[in-house]
Amino acid sequence: MSDLRLKGVAKRFGEKDVLAPMDVVVTDGSFVSLLGPSGCGKTTLLRLIAGLETPSAGEIVLGETVLYGPGVNIPPEKRRFGMVFQSYAVWPHMTVFENVEYPLKVRGMDRKRRAQGVMKTLDLVHMDELAGRYPHQLSGGQQQRTALARGLVMEPPVLLLDEPLSNLDARLRAEMRREIRDLHRALGITILYVTHDQREAFEMATKIVIINEGRIEQEGTPVEIQNDPAPGFVREFLSHA
Predict the structure, then answer these.
(1) Is the pTM of this model over 0.90?
(2) Which pLDDT tens digit goes with each residue over 65-74?
(3) Where in the chain does DSSP place strands (E)?
(4) How confident is residue 1, by pLDDT bands cut at 50, 70 and 90?
């Protein structure tokens, strides 16, 4: 079991505490959503897990491997997480195929295995017929599918998604919610998903962690939180759905 465990993870920027020490467990194969308003610290937490930011305290452990802790700070590329950003971040000078292939090239995989892996993953996200197109020839939804395929192609231990649907219109958001949920069920992959959108979190996640001002306010299954929201911030936040 490769559970992802955060133990007392905190972050300060200068004199400001952005994240209070927090413990989070993302069990192997689960879909965990970090839910909260803009500026609450959820993206910072995701970046700490990815290795794009350095914690001020605490430990980050995947399975038996310490990713961050006393004397240890494994760089992002060696953590092997897949990551999908809000802005898609697909390279405009590369085709869909080349964008998805890039992580495999960096790992030194041979050309035949790269091609097989890319086309298998593009088929999963319904982009195999557009493999030769460039990003400017794609819709926003197609660009996001390309970014999703690039995050999946390495078969990462955890897929990290940071507000991946916020730039899409309502119809495409609904479509992508279904597709991401179906991919999670079909592949059994572990997903950690940042969003401020309650509908996204409650429709897709198996566990929700609600964050406000750098602190965990409540965590539990969607049903548990809906049936018994914590008093104060959580009840107020959910009432504005």
Answers:
(1) yes
(2) 999 999 999 9
(3) 4-13, 16-26, 31-35, 57-62, 65-69, 72-73, 82-84, 158-162, 190-195, 207-212, 215-220
(4) low
Q: How far apart are CA 150 and CA 7, in angstroms?
A: 29
Cα angle 97, 103, 104; round to 5: 80
- Give the Å distances, CA to CA, from 144 to 135, 220, 230: 10, 28, 34
Q: Residue 25 is encoded by which pair of tokens? A: 């467990």
* Banded model confidence at residue 131, pLDDT cuts 50, 70, 90: very high
Q: What are phi and psi of 222, to 5 degrees?
A: -55, -40
Under 8 Å CB-to-CB from 89, ≥6 apart: which residues?
147
d(CA 185, CA 169): 24
Backbone angles phi and psi of 126, in degrees to 5: 60, 40
Given a contact cutoff of 8 angstroms between Cβ atoms, the answer to whether 231 and 222 are in contact is no
Which element (helix H / strand E) includes 173? helix 170-187
Q: Is there a contact between 154 and 103 (Cβ–Cβ < 8 Å)? A: yes
